[in-house]
Specification:
Blueprint: H1 3-12, E1 20-30, H2 31-48, E2 69-79, E3 83-89, E4 97-103, E5 106-112
Antiparallel strand pairs: 1-2, 2-3, 3-4, 4-5
Length: about 110
């Protein structure tokens, strides 16, 4: 079997080879660059006229400059056919850790402090 045929077979049979999947990672952001990219995205949405978006910004109450970068850890668990769980850090200081649990296409957000 050629390399291309092996790759195509792996791609087309991928759902048959696993029952559960666990992932952990992190999202790193350079906040100024992220802000510019988000603003560009919002402007593109408005040009299309099919969507609307609203952005807000927060300033530190102590007058200090915000961090230039951020890193947020996350975890995902999937089980066939229809179960999932995600855990991530909330951007809201009062809600430090959030989990989303889904079964059968329906999900609910669970907030833990």
């Amino acid at each position: 079997m050629s390399d291309l045929a092996q790759v195509l077979e792996l791609m087309h049979t991928r759902w048959q080879r696993w029952t559960t999947l666990r992932l952990e990672g992190h999202e790193w952001r350079h906040l100024e660059t992220f802000g510019r990219a988000w603003q560009h995205h919002v402007e593109e949405l408005h040009k299309g006229g099919a969507a609307s978006a609203r952005s807000i910004a927060f300033k530190r109450s102590d007058g200090r400059q915000p961090a230039a970068e951020s890193r947020e850890d996350w975890r995902v668990w999937l089980a066939k056919p229809d179960k999932s769980r995600t855990e991530f850090k909330s951007a809201m200081p009062r809600l430090p850790q959030c989990s989303s649990v889904g079964i059968g296409g329906a999900g609910r957000l669970v907030v833990a402090s």
